[in-house]
């Protein structure tokens, strides 16, 4: 008679085998499907490419979900002899102990500054210049990579089409920047279970993918204006995810942005491809971008308020899983090696790709520094000015033409944004005065 020790079913070995087995089953299944499906059809349809990407992400997400349920049902983390693998599982899945000190969010409470007025002005110019240079160059390169043709010394010409590779390279450099920053800067321990980063990491890479992919169907000025108006889906997601309440002026400015967007889109058709399906694809992709991006920001806000980590810790955690998900997807589809080959054939693309990722990563660090030094209001003003400059720069470099009515729509959107900033600041000052009055009374 064979006696089986039931503890083996609750051991780290069993959990490891379960994760690895599920991963390889899903990975092999995906490889079999890809050999059956005609690749040319997939490459021509952004919707099929998205489905393939999601299937590849499932190779990581499904084993992770099963592992979470296994740990929860077997009370695996309550064992005393966890070992190194068990401690890793605890880091990924366990909530922090109540006696552990929580991290401090460096963005929620900007530190008091004792610098002279001249030094503050220099800091503001540094933040303004850093954000403008980083993201204006990023925008120009983004449009160039996705819309322009590359050629080499052999007079070969080709367009780069793999949006996911750009997301991967951006996330690798952002993870490296944030990781190096954390290594040389002392932060309190991050108590957020690592798996909670997966939600916003997934929506973050999907929103970035939609953003790059949309440039195949809409112009860069259209994309920038849509992004400037993303406060509308952010408000919707805020209602759904965080049950937030909004002021009346927030609804008014949201309506103004919507009107401006409609004016721009209805009277800017001369610069678009004349195919109806193309326009629909661009609109759908931008709608998906805004939805995913809105969820990302609201989920990150929820993690900030619950675990009080720093923004750089958030950047590192999110980009860690973004690198993992996109790497598995690229390898499973063979896209990683194709993109690297494209780099070797077209050196100018390799340079553009590196500069794009460098600008994206440095821009994120400038964001955190600006918010921690001057607060979110100054940051929003700088970002809004950057969006205006990005539209002008794109029109000049890539010869986009805006009709008078479309230009007026752009003005309506940005007037609404500045009005929203003014009302936010005014309401904040009124509440501070009321608070001082109640304290003095």
Outline of the structure:
It holds the Pfam family UAA. By secondary structure, the protein is mainly alpha-helical. About 75% of the residues lie in helices and about 0% in strands.
Describe what you observe in this structure.
The structure is a single chain. This protein has a two-stranded antiparallel sheet. Helix 3 crosses helix 12 (311-333) and helix 13 crosses helix 14 (347-374). By secondary structure, it is an all-alpha fold. A hairpin with a 5-residue loop joins strand 1 and strand 2. It has helices at residues 12-36, 39-44, 46-74, 83-93, 117-147, 163-183, 196-214, 220-228, 231-241, 248-266, 276-307, 311-333, 335-345, 347-374, 376-398, 404-440, and strands at 150-151, 157-158. It contains 16 helices and 2 strands. 76% of the residues lie in helices and 1% in strands.
């Amino acid at each position: 008679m064979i006696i089986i020790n039931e503890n083996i079913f609750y051991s780290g070995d069993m959990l490891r085998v379960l994760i690895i087995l599920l991963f390889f089953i899903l990975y092999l299944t995906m490889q079999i499907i890809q050999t059956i499906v005609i690749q040319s059809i997939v490459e021509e349809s952004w919707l099929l490419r998205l489905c393939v990407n999601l299937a590849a992400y499932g190779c990581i997400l499904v084993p992770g979900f099963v592992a979470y349920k296994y740990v929860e049902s077997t009370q695996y983390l309550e064992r005393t002899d966890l070992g190194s693998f068990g401690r890793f599982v605890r880091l990924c899945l366990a909530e922090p102990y109540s006696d552990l000190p929580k991290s401090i969010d460096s963005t929620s409470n900007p530190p008091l500054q004792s610098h002279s007025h001249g030094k503050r002005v220099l800091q503001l110019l540094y933040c303004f210049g850093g954000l403008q240079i980083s993201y204006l160059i990023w925008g120009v390169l983004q449009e160039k990579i996705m819309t322009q043709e590359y050629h080499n010394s052999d007079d070969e010409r080709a367009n780069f089409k793999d949006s996911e590779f750009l997301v991967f390279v951006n996330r690798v450099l952002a993870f490296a920047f944030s990781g190096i920053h954390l290594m040389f800067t002392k932060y309190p321990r991050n108590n957020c279970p690592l798996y909670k980063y997966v939600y916003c990491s997934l929506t973050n890479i999907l929103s970035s993918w939609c953003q790059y992919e949309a440039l195949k169907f809409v112009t860069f000025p259209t994309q920038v204006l849509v992004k400037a108006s993303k406060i509308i889906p952010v408000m919707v997601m805020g209602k759904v995810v965080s049950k937030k309440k909004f002021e009346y002026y927030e609804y008014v400015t949201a309506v103004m942005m919507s009107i401006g967007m409609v004016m721009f889109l209805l009277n800017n058709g001369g610069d678009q491809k004349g195919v109806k399906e193309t326009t629909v694809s661009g609109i759908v992709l931008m709608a998906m971008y805004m939805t995913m991006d809105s969820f990302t920001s609201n989920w990150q806000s929820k993690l900030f308020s619950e675990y009080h980590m720093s923004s750089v810790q958030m950047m590192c955690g999110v980009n860690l899983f973004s690198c993992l998900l996109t790497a598995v997807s690229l390898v499973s589809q063979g896209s990683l090696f194709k993109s690297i080959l494209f780099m070797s054939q077209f050196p100018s693309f390799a340079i553009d790709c590196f500069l794009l990722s460098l600008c994206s990563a440095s821009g994120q660090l400038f964001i955190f520094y600006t918010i921690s030094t001057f607060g979110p209001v100054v940051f929003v003003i700088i970002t809004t000015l950057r969006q205006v400059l990005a539209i002008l720069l794109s029109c000049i470099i890539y010869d986009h033409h805006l009709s008078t009515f479309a230009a007026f729509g752009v003005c309506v959107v940005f007037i609404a944004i500045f009005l929203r900033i003014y009302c936010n600041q005014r309401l904040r000052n009124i509440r501070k005065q009321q608070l001082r009055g109640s304290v003095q009374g």
